UniProtKB/TrEMBL annotation:
This is Palmitoyltransferase. It is a multi-pass membrane protein. One of its GO terms (cellular component) is membrane. Residues 116-255 form the Palmitoyltransferase DHHC domain. One of its GO terms (molecular function) is protein-cysteine S-palmitoyltransferase activity. Its EC number is 2.3.1.225. It comes from the Eukaryota. The DHHC domain is required for palmitoyltransferase activity.
């Protein structure tokens, strides 16, 4: 029996059916996590071993006051950033489970009003939750998938994500300042060495033997630090804007307004809880309970109490 030869159209549709788009995105997610962890470890080591000793060394060779304190600060920034990264990464509480519906609608087999049935995880998902094709879960009040933590930012970890951004912002600002100070001592930016600060020119000068490897390494590291700084400024600013508006990134993109008449302070409390809780999370990387469960939402109430 002779098999029919597949047409080009059939071959193409078969190719796209089999192609795994998910794997590519997961590779991007893994690359983001690896980049962040490498930056975190190398920055603290570079700071403690190279940048801080140079910055605090006086002309007579002794260490200026504040050296020990700056070392402690560098270690604390490293630990706080790593802990908040982990708290964002560990997002199990965000995942929609079938128990959530059972707890709120024990006797209903239908999809509750305002909820939707997810065709991918085959579960009824609460309002404001969305499916993440990378995590392969529906996520409570899903904001976005973070490629740096390799997890979704949703109801239970948005607060730690913002705190993580704050620590990353402080760390990258300080690191960039120390890196520029270090390079400026060896290769003053106001002289003909200014060209070194352009990465390709810096590479050329290193290959020509005009500058040592450590200086070129710190230049490359400085570029990575500035990229991280730019990204974290964008994300922190965007998070504060959408939190003030009571939206998620998805809702902002789709121009969905959940709360049009609510005070900004209430929108902030939805994400950060009471001020004392937020301040505590800011100082100590705790996983404090959120003000609600992220399942029930009163979306744009039509009837106010007493009316
Ligand atoms: Zn789903
Ligand atoms: Zn995700």
């Amino acid at each position: 029996m002779q098999r029919r030869q597949a047409t080009l159209k059939e071959k193409l549709s078969e190719h796209y059916r089999k192609r795994d788009f998910k794997a590519k995105k997961q590779t991007a997610s893994t690359a983001g996590v690896v980049f962040f962890l490498c930056m975190l470890v190398t920055l603290v080591l570079e700071g403690l071993v190279v940048l801080l000793p140079r910055y605090y060394t006086s002309d007579d060779g002794s260490m200026a006051s504040g050296y020990r304190l700056s070392q402690l600060l560098a270690v604390w920034l490293f630990l706080a950033t790593a802990a908040n990264w982990y708290n964002t990464y560990y997002d199990v509480a965000n995942r929609v489970t079938k128990e959530m519906k059972a707890a709120h609608y024990p006797s209903s087999s239908e999809t509750p009003p305002g909820w939707k049935n997810c065709p991918l995880c085959m579960l009824d998902a609460p309002p404001r939750s969305h499916h993440c094709s990378l995590c392969n879960y529906c996520i409570l009040k899903r904001d976005h998938h973070c490629f740096v933590t390799g997890s979704c930012v949703g109801y239970h970890n948005q607060r730690t994500f913002v705190v993580f951004c704050i620590y990353t912002l402080i760390s990258t600002t300080w690191a960039a300042f120390l890196q520029i100070s270090y390079l400026n001592q060896d290769l003053p930016i106001s002289t003909y060495w200014a060209s070194f600060y352009f990465p390709l020119a810096g590479l050329w000068q290193y290959l020509a033997g005009a500058v040592p490897f450590l200086n070129f390494f710190i230049l490359v590291h400085l570029c990575c630090t500035l990229v991280s700084f730019g990204l974290v400024v964008f994300f922190l600013f965007w998070q504060l804007v959408i939190i003030a508006r009571g939206q998620t990134s998805f809702e902002a993109w789709k121009q969905i307004s959940i709360y049009r008449r609510r005070a900004v302070l209430n929108n902030f409390q939805d994400v950060f809880g009471q001020l004392t809780n937020f301040l505590l999370c800011l100082v100590v990387p705790l996983r404090l309970p959120m003000p609600a469960d992220g399942i029930k939402w009163v979306i744009e109430p039509k009837e106010e109490k007493g009316h």
